[in-house]
Input
Amino acid sequence: MKVNKTNRNYLMLLYWGDEEDVRNFDIMCDDVLVASESLSHNAPGRFMMRCYPIPEEATSGKESVRIHLTSPTGTRTGGLFYAYMMSSKDEPTGIDTTTGTRQSAEFWYNLAGQRLSKPQKGVIIANGKIKTVL
Output
């Protein structure tokens, strides 16, 4: 999979819950452990989306990596429907890594997801929470 060699990379996996079993497996990026996953596929027809941050040592200076699933316990792996990689230049958490405190900036969006310069009357999203402005 292609990666951004300077930004933080995230592996997005969409699983399909149609097997009615339990799957325990490790997600590897080249030879670096990304995550250990345990999925209970007991809901036929249901999708499950997971996002995994890729350790920087696995992508630093690379243009592409090999993602693979392995099961140390011998169960089946995956149930993957779709996989893709995304990258972000900024810390997605809103946490200031120099002080460890949450940033105080307020952001407003309308219900169509458009960013607003100031709160407007009606129903808006303010800092991730639905709010009614009178």
